[in-house]
Amino acid sequence: MQDPGFVKDAFSKIADRYVVTNHVLSMGTDILWRKRVGQIVVEWNPDTVLDIATGTGDLALELQKVCYDAEVIASDFCPEMLAHATKRGVKITQVVDAMSMPFDDDSCDVLTVAFGLRNMANYPEALTEMKRVIRPGGHLLILDFSQPEGLLQKPYGFYLNKILPIIAGKLTNEKEAYSYLAGSIGDFPSGKAMCDLIESQGYKEARQEALSGGIASIYTAEV
Length: 223
Known about the structure:
The structure is a single chain. This protein is an alpha/beta fold. It has a single domain (4-222), classed as Vaccinia Virus protein VP39 (Rossmann fold), CATH 3.40.50.150. It is built from nine helices and seven strands; from the N terminus they run H-H-H-E-H-E-H-E-E-H-E-H-H-H-E-E. The protein has helices spanning 4-14, 18-26, 29-43, 58-66, 79-87, 123-133, 153-172, 175-187, 192-200; strands at residues 48-52, 71-76, 92-95, 108-114, 134-145, 204-211, 216-222. It has a seven-stranded mixed sheet, with helices on both faces. Helix 3 (29-43) packs across helix 4. The chain is globular.
């Protein structure tokens, strides 16, 4: 659970270098993760997709490309991030606090959130608000970092807490923001804990798909 004021300030400071930094830190793997999300969402054949905490629009752009008949709405509470999303070609953007959204009940077929739930003030309340705007029979999809097990666990933890903030600090001049992001990953529920959290808010059939050895995961559920 995060301090929204700190999070908003941190992301506004790194907005100009956010896309490049993410690709460098993940060695481009984050692009493949979003493509996998696109493959899943297109199979649901949605008419309306709401991508919340869209940031600079990476996932919204992928969804626009593969769900070309759908209306893709990209929202974020950081205007600096959304400005970059618009410049990059995201068609519909809206400044929105995901904890209290201005959208009607049952107003989208699919709601996606990539690397965003982890930064929200209250995970259960955020999931409940997301459920409110998803139509009955619709889908939730969360893409976020998770904790790998086995041989990857220790080297990944070292990279996350020691190496990542240094590299990101040099790329953005904002080491503090990325130190926060690294810490937030360690505190974020993953695997079964995340599926249990999702289902505790009234969703059905929560599932995890581990990516890159468990460094990231896709969680899906139905309403």
